Amino acid sequence: MKAAVMYQKGELPQYTDFQEPTAQNNDEVLVAVKAVAIKHFDKGRATGKHYSSYTPRDDGRVIGGDGVCLMDDGTRVYGMGVSGMLAEKALVEKDRIVKLPAGVSDAAAAALANAVIGSAMGLKFKADIQPGDVVLINGATGFTGRVAVQIAKHYGAKKVIATGRNQQSLQDLLALGADEIISVKQDGESFITLIKAIHKATPIDVIIDYLWGHTAEMILTSLAGRGSFTNKTRFVSVGSMSGDIIQLSAANLRSVDLQLTGSGLGSWSKPQVAKLFSEILPEMFQLAADGNLKVETIEVKLENIAELWNLDVPDGRRLVVSI
């Protein structure tokens, strides 16, 4: 079969022939792959920069973690791979597949799944979002951030505040459900002053953070109290596009009713992951099929993987490889 194979960390994946995988137990099933999204997560694992990175083998490793597939009987599903997914054939786990509704395209479904994992899991299980909550999404102009804005509103958020660098992308978020947009390009003092004013007027209940780094420091500083009662804020770290380390004052933690947690591989329980496949993903795929959850993709071919691996994808879109 043809596949995208990584031989050494840091090298470009190669379009080449690779041995078709075979199921090792009754929990695995061989599928024909139709579409796979290329995400920061995939690139991080392939290059060794993500905490869940795998070790390259001398004979190479097929990359890609999930995608849209066809079962033997022609049923179209989203599946999470046991073997690499950027290939004509792949192994998926039987309990980690979701049947897709007719109204969602292969590309949209392949792109949407990871963004749902990167938003809904944090909103639902880590932040315990409730109807009427005020939600701030830090770094909302990326693909997952755009999905998070829409899902937060779907889950009943009263107000969604979105931050980002690209002004046009921020403006686009207003049409997707954001109620207020904030540029992170302004000076730090102005940014902190604005967050403080918003928090005073409409206390922020949930923060979903895709940036970490200095913007997270400023947001946490903005929440700091002065010895009086404070609104409980659930801060969920999902990404670290602006840096992996922050400085956080102990006084900052003690002065505010703050829940600080993360959402990612290793942070979810088995029952939560089971609900992802049985409830959350089916609901979100149906929303997309009905036109109530919007995503934008750029579709490319598997044979062009090496030249497209480092393609600069515009804010808010996802690169999807069709197979």
Structural commentary:
The structure is a single chain. With 323 residues, the chain is of the alpha/beta class. The protein folds into 2 domains: 2-113 and 295-322, Quinone Oxidoreductase, Chain A, domain 1 (Alpha-Beta Complex); 119-262, NAD(P)-binding Rossmann-like Domain (Rossmann fold, 3-Layer(aba) Sandwich). Helices cover 31% and strands 26% of the residues. The protein has helices spanning 40-47, 106-117, 120-126, 143-154, 167-174, 188-201, 213-223, 250-254, 270-289, 305-308; strands at residues 2-6, 14-17, 28-38, 61-62, 66-70, 76-81, 89-99, 134-138, 159-164, 180-183, 206-209, 233-237, 258-262, 296-301, 317-322. The strands form 3 sheets. Strands 3, 5, 6, 7, 14 and 15 form a 6-stranded mixed β-sheet that branches. Strands 10-9-8-11-12-13 form a 6-stranded parallel β-sheet, sandwiched between helices. Strands 2-1-4 form a 3-stranded antiparallel β-sheet, with no helix packed on it. Strand 12, helix 8 and strand 13 form a beta-alpha-beta unit. The protein is elongated. The relative contact order is 0.16. The mean pLDDT is 93.
